[in-house]
Amino acid sequence: MPDRGPQPRPDLLALVAMAIILLVLVGGYLIFPWLQQLVGYQDCVASGRITGC
């Protein structure tokens, strides 16, 4: 049986892209409540209701 030489490495671009997409989704999931609270507070301040929020 002839030697075919070294096998090519698997393409890691797809795995790296998937990891980046998952990191962005998880990061957004974790940051969204904090961001929503911040925007809600700014809306209260803008409407003049600082203590009623």
Tell me what the structure shows.
The structure is a single chain. The chain has 53 residues and is mainly alpha-helical. Helix content is 66%, strand content 0%. It has 1 helix and no strands. It has one helix at residues 13-47. The longest helix has 35 residues, at 13-47. The termini are far apart. The mean pLDDT is 82.
Overall structural class, as computed from helix and strand content, comes to mainly alpha
Helix content, binned percent: 55-70%
Distance between the termini: 77 Å
Mean pLDDT comes to 82
- H/E element sequence: H
Biggest β-sheet, characterized? none
User: Counting H and I runs of at least 4 residues, what is the number of helices?
Assistant: 1
Strand content: under 5%
Uncertain residue ranges = none
Rg (C-alpha, Å) = 24 Å
- Total count of strands: 0
SSE order and pairing:
Layout (H helix, E strand, L loop, with lengths): L12 H35 L6
